[in-house]
Specification:
Layout: H1 3-9, H2 11-37, E1 42-43, E2 46-70, E3 74-80, E4 93-102, E5 107-109, E6 125-132, E7 135-141, E8 145-150, E9 160-165, H3 166-173, E10 181-189, E11 199-201, E12 204-222, H4 226-235
Antiparallel strand pairs: 1-2, 2-9, 2-12, 3-10, 4-8, 4-12, 5-11, 6-7, 6-10
Helix pairs in contact: 1-2
Length: 236
Amino acid sequence: MSLMEDIKTDQRTQILVAGMVLFALAFPAYFYYAAGQADSDFSVSGPVGNYAVDGTYSYHVIAEDSAYVNDGETVDIMANSDAAGDEIDGLNIVGVRATLTFTDDEDQGGPGCGLPTANGPVADDISGNMMHFGFEQSSATQSGESVTLEWHNSSFVGTTVSNMSESEIRMELDGLFGIGEHSLGISVNVNTGGGAGCNSNDEGEEVAYTIELISLEYTLEMVEGEVEEEEEEGEE
């Protein structure tokens, strides 16, 4: 017997077909109604609210050495994330930093060097320039200081972020770069002291450097009303 004949003569088949038609009509109508009744503060990215952001940074060496940089010149050093090996597998890489260490090697000599009018050695100007994937950051450094290049919103870490969804916050904190080549440029401009009868000799600097990738582990916790309470307490 064909399906059409069953529909005409068999009561069970008729009930089954009627149920299928009713479901086909009611299913889209239900979801249309549910969408209209959904909380306006909820999106596909999760509920919008206040989130406490707690994070921990870690550092992973990919290059460590020294280079002599002549006065007025720049030495470029390349470092690859592969040097960190398995240490960075699965980590959230959010930046890179280079720490520069140096000691002024200016030589002075002559009969006037001990006079009160003589100047002692003057610190040279050292700067670092970090580049990766189109990002760039330069800064002058004292010995032991770093030039840091970041591609995440570090201002979120250790704070409570308001009126954002969890996925929006993660977009600010997740590192999309970091793998591959990183470039460090070290520049030196010599400053000499001395004076009448006191000769200075300073041709450049021996600069030690350490290049490290920066990783961030973080947690998000929704905090209902905490920001509002803090603001009210500040107004009292």
